[in-house]
Amino acid sequence: MLEVQTNLAEEGAADLVVELVVNSHSSQNIFIEAVELGIALLEGGNSRIQEILYHKLTNNIDKAQKFFKVFFEKMQDAQLEIRMTVTVNTSDLTQRPSDDKDGLPSTADKPALPARAAKHVNKNGVVVTEEMKKDMDSAVTATVQAISAVRTEKNVGVLVEEEEPKLSPKIAVMDPILRCLQLFCENHNTDMQNLLRQQAGKTVYNLVSETLLFLDCICGSTTGGLGLLGLYINEHNVSLINQTLETLTEYCQGPYE
């Protein structure tokens, strides 16, 4: 695999990753494909690919500024999306109609049973036998139960959809981004670690710090701690949280002795 990766890079694949990222502003799909290509080239910790990318990004300051700006803005967009999603979910929870303890619609929603005809004669003068009254009562009861069952089934389906949201594209894209940045620094590459933290140029895009801020955001924290982790972590974002931790670990690991 290393040989194939190196051959592709020497034919321009590594340079292509940088160029595609820089020119991906108008297309999320192009950006994702570029990042996935970078991951494929760097998979396994290919130091030759790291070297090619490092020289590409340090020999052209303007290109490097544009490259890291794209990643920086994607990270900020993801954080904003998380904050907006959490706000909406919290609002939805407070606006849900209250149901009975057994999950069925409240009695206020149920149609009232018709009044029994007094002395077997209704207001129109039609004679109603006791047997007919029992049949009518049974029919109404069955109808009420059927309506309740349909409403309950519908409400349960809605609740399942609301309580198990999947990650939006702006947040989901962080997984390949963080994996790619992790591979940039694989094998304790201090040059890449420093480059992700500080670049030459007018603007510094500190992707290390931004990754930590993303972890804070997805864990519901503003202080560097785990915050209200139990309210934020779920089956859809736990993999992304793990990837964030793995990337942060690779950022700060020292060189081999």
Automatic annotation (TrEMBL):
Residues 91-113 are annotated as: Disordered. It comes from the Eukaryota. It comes from Hyalella azteca (Amphipod). InterPro entries: RIH_assoc-dom, Ryanodine_IP3_receptor. One of its GO terms (biological process) is calcium ion transport. Residues 170-255 form the RyR/IP3R Homology associated domain. This is RyR/IP3R Homology associated domain-containing protein. It holds the Pfam family RIH_assoc.
